[in-house]
């Protein structure tokens, strides 16, 4: 029994040493060159795909083309058969790559063989011409026989082209089916539950590895050993060591030198402004990626200069290279965004203590991701058991989640210390707060999933979280660079803007508009690419994969018959939230950036922004219904329900809505106009879909339904005369007053007031003559209707003062007094002690004679 236990202990120790040796060899391979990315065909039985010949076959090679088409058809059937029995992601991915290679062979066969042969045959038939119609113009039997042979060859080539197109179409459908299988397999894996990470059963797979896993790891290590031994033979060690040292120098010293060279270029060659900061950040990322690729290329040359990699390592090494580039990008983005060496160059609003606290985390995260990617690819390459795969995934998810969580905790601790010290931390926007909360929730969900045993789900969350941060950081830098480049190139203050202005005869305002529109287009394209990358990409995705995904999404068939299911409900909520956020951004951009640079009035700008927002809201509602799976021909019941609701209680809302659209279209009143309606006079501040907000002189706001502005009489003070107001006063004087003297006094009062315009000149009109007196009307114009009231008050003060100085009294209206008969008999007349000598006093007495 002791011998048996010793044997088991020895086996476990050998397995542990084997795993450690594979990982160390993997790290060595990770540093080795930029290995061409290959498919995962090593996980499948060999499937030979013969590349078609480059040279076009002769006319007698029709049978050869048929044989090649038959071989391609057979390979397609083999791929379809294997896809139906595949059980792992590696097998499905390898079959997908093989189907794409077969499709490329079909394309090559069509372009290099079938189409040239058909064109050649058609040209030969054109030379022979058509057969003669009459017997008198008979042709030789040789010509007729050659024509029939060429016609038969043309029919055969047409059939072969049709068969090739059918094979190509079937391969495309097969690739789509394999993709769906991969997605379904991922869903099954996410729902798989295992032991918790705190249980002993979870760690048992590492302490007691399976015999099959142990044998696969030994075989895989043997392949790596053989490849390394070819580069470390006597006579090759010096060259290999020099290449490795050179690669390390490029990755370390070369990165620093290239980074400093790019900084000097940005400071000396680029114009002053924000473009320097964004260009420096991009140059930091570019320098890291270029030196990393060069170093890996040198190491690849050192590894394969004696012997190429075996086919079993091609797919494994290609996936590792993707992770190397991705991890280099993670570290470079961290350096560019934190920018602890030059805090004044930092693009995001991050406090310097927070940036210094977060400085080691990007490099640590990149190293952990590189290690985790290596472990994942080992599992994929050797096809380990489910227990060992779940163990490695759990460890990777735990390490990555803890690393990101520690970075969040450290940043929060520094922010708390800054707040306690009464120092101003960075100003965080709403979007940044949402992202911070989402990352925190994802980390918490990953840890909870690991504790509950959902290892695959936790690994999926952590990898998607890293990919999410990676895409957002890249898009943030690129959008900043795009905006700064557009503003700098089209700036009238720089040489490029002056050249464009003189070349096309533009004005400065036109340059600003072009810069704003071009910047918005570039940023929108980057945001669209980011959304596609988030939905279709993942950790280890190359730029070529992203381009293929974008083309797939834009050109693929996305309109399917959908049903409303819980997944669609969450998708619809997410779509609605994202679309509303984008509409808000676009509306803010129109209102704050683009429209103010045009020559439109403020009212016209407000109307355009309102119409744009309403149209976008309708489109968002339609898109949300589409994501839910509601088809357009199924909306009849919604229309019927709305018609009943409108008939009973929604008619006022619909009437106001239609009236709002009429106001925005015809614009009888607009934002900024001064109107008067039903005794309400004020300025229009906002026209919404349902009502219009009018601000009164006391700064209060009256909300008037839009239908009132359509159905009632509205006085628009600023519509006909947008720049002038009228101040009119009507005064009544006694009949014994000199009207010309009064006219001069009134005109002089108007001319002396600073707000009264000289043109049109003030005027005085003799408007009325009655027994009570004469009425003179004086009229003057001011710069705006909104100052007419204040000017009227000032003029009344000035005119009353001038009239008293000139001893010109105003007339008093006639007073009619009804007296009793006794008062008339006693001749008692009322007297008015306050009446002046020039006032007209009339006493009327009515008596009844009896």
UniProtKB/TrEMBL annotation:
Q: Which GO terms describe its molecular function?
A: mechanosensitive monoatomic ion channel activity
Compartment(s): Cell membrane
Keywords recorded for this protein, A-Z: Cell membrane, Coiled coil, Membrane, Transmembrane, Transmembrane helix
Q: Indicate whether Cell membrane appears among the record's keywords.
A: yes
UniProt-listed InterPro entries: DUF3772, LSM_dom_sf, MS_channel_C, MscS-like_channel, MscS_beta-dom_sf, MscS_channel_2nd, MscS_channel_C_sf, MscS_channel_TM-2
Coiled-coil region: 157-184
According to the entry, every stretch annotated as the DUF3772 domain falls at 161-223
Residues crossing the lipid bilayer are 238-258, 279-300, 320-339, 390-409, 430-451, 520-541, 561-585, 606-629
User: Sorted alphabetically, which PANTHER family does this protein's record hold?
Assistant: MINICONDUCTANCE MECHANOSENSITIVE CHANNEL MSCM, POTASSIUM CHANNEL RELATED
Q: Name one Pfam family in it.
A: MS_channel_3rd
Record-given protein name: Small-conductance mechanosensitive channel
Tell me where on the tree of life, at the top rank, the source sits.
Answer: Bacteria
Give the organism's phylogenetic lineage: Bacteria, Pseudomonadati, Pseudomonadota, Betaproteobacteria, Burkholderiales
Origin organism is Paraburkholderia tuberum
The family note in this entry says:
Belongs to the MscS (TC 1.A.23) family.
Q: Which residues form the Mechanosensitive ion channel MscS C-terminal domain?
A: 729-809
Q: What is its main location?
A: membrane
In this protein, which residues make up the domain named Mechanosensitive ion channel MscS?
Answer: 653-718
Q: Which GO terms describe its cellular component?
A: plasma membrane
| The keyword Transmembrane helix is annotated on this UniProt entry | yes
As for membrane topology, the entry says: Multi-pass membrane protein
Q: Where is the signal peptide?
A: none
């Amino acid at each position: 029994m002791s011998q048996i236990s010793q044997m088991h202990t020895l086996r476990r120790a050998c397995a542990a040493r084997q795993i450690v040796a594979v990982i160390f060899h993997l790290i060595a391979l990770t540093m080795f060159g930029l290995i061409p990315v290959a498919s995962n065909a090593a996980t499948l039985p060999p499937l030979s795909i013969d590349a078609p010949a480059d040279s076009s076959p002769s006319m007698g090679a029709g049978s050869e083309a048929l044989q090649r088409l038959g071989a391609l058809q057979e390979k397609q059937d083999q791929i379809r058969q294997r896809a139906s029995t595949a059980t792992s992601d590696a097998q499905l991915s390898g079959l997908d790559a093989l189907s794409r290679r077969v499709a490329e062979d079909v394309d090559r066969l069509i372009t290099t063989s079938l189409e040239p042969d058909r064109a050649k045959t058609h040209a030969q038939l054109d030379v022979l011409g058509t057969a003669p119609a009459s017997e008198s113009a008979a042709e030789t039997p040789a010509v007729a026989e050659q024509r029939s042979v060429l016609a038969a060859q043309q029919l055969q080539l047409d059939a072969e082209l049709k068969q090739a197109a059918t094979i190509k179409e079937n391969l495309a459908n097969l690739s789509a089916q394999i993709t769906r299988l991969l997605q379904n397999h991922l869903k099954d894996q996410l729902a798989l539950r295992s032991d918790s990470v705190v249980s002993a059963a979870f760690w048992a797979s590492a302490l007691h590895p399976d015999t099959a896993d142990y044998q696969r790891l030994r075989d895989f290590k043997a392949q790596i050993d053989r490849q390394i031994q070819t580069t470390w033979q006597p006579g090759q060690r010096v060259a290999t060591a020099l290449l490795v040292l050179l690669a390390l120098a490029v990755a370390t010293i070369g990165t620093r030198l290239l980074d400093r060279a790019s900084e000097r270029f940005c400071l000396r060659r680029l114009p002053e402004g924000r473009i320097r900061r964004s260009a420096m950040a991009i140059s930091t990322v570019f320098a890291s990626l270029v030196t990393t690729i060069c170093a890996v290329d040198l190491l690849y040359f050192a590894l394969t200069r004696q012997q190429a990699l075996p086919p079993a390592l091609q797919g494994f090494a290609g996936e590792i290279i993707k992770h190397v580039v991705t991890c280099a990008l993670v570290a470079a983005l961290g350096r560019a965004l934190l920018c602890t060496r030059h805090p004044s160059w930092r693009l995001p609003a991050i406090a310097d203590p927070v940036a210094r606290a977060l400085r080691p985390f990007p490099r640590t995260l990149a190293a952990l991701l590189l290690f985790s990617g290596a472990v994942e690819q080992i599992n994929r390459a050797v096809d380990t058991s489910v227990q060992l795969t779940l163990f490695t995934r759990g460890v990777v998810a735990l390490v990555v989640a803890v690393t990101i969580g520690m970075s969040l905790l450290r940043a929060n601790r520094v922010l708390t210390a800054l707040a306690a010290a009464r120092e101003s931390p960075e100003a965080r926007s709403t979007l940044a707060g949402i992202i911070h909360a989402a990352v925190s929730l994802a980390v918490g969900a990953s840890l909870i999933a690991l504790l509950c045993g959902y290892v695959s789900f936790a690994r999926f969350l952590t990898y998607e979280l890293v990919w999410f941060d990676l895409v957002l950081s890249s898009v943030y830098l690129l959008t900043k660079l795009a905006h700064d480049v557009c503003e700098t190139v089209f700036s009238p203050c720089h040489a490029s803007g002056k050249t464009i202005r003189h070349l096309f005869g533009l004005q400065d305002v036109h340059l600003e508009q072009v810069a704003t529109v071009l910047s918005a287009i570039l940023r929108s394209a980057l945001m669209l690419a980011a959304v596609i990358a988030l939905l279709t990409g993942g950790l280890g995705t190359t730029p070529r994969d992203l381009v293929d995904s974008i083309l797939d999404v834009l050109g693929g068939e996305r309109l399917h018959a959908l049903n409303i299911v819980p997944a669609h409900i969450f998708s619809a909520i997410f779509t609605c939230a994202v679309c509303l956020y984008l509409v808000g951004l676009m509306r803010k951009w129109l209102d704050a950036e683009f429209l103010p640079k045009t020559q439109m009035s403020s009212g016209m700008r407000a109307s355009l922004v309102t119409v744009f927002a309403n149209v976008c809201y309708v489109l968002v509602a339609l898109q949300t219904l589409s994501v839910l799976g509601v088809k357009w021909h199924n909306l009849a019941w919604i229309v019927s329900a709305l018609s009943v609701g409108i008939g009973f209680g929604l008619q006022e809302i619909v009437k106001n809505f239609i009236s709002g659209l009429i106001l925005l279209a015809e614009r009888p009143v607009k934002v900024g106009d001064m109107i008067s309606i039903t005794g309400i006079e004020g300025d229009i501040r906002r026209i919404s879909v349902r009502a219009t907000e009018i601000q009164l002189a006391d700064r209060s706001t009256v909300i008037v339904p839009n239908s009132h502005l359509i159905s009632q009489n509205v006085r628009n003070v600023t519509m006909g005369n947008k720049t002038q107001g009228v101040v009119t006063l009507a005064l009544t004087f006694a009949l014994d007053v000199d009207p010309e003297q009064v006219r001069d006094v009134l005109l002089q009062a108007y001319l002396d007031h600073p707000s009264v315009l000289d043109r049109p000149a003030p005027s005085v009109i003799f408007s009325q003559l009655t027994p009570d007196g004469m009425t003179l009307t004086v009229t003057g114009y001011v710069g705006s209707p909104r100052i007419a009231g204040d000017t009227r008050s000032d003029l009344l003060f000035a005119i009353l003062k001038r009239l008293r100085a000139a001893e010109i009294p105003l007339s008093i209206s006639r007073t009619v007094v009804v007296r009793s008969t006794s008062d008339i008999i006693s001749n008692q007349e009322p007297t008015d002690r306050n009446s002046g000598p020039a006032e007209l006093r009339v006493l009327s007495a009515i008596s009844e004679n009896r």
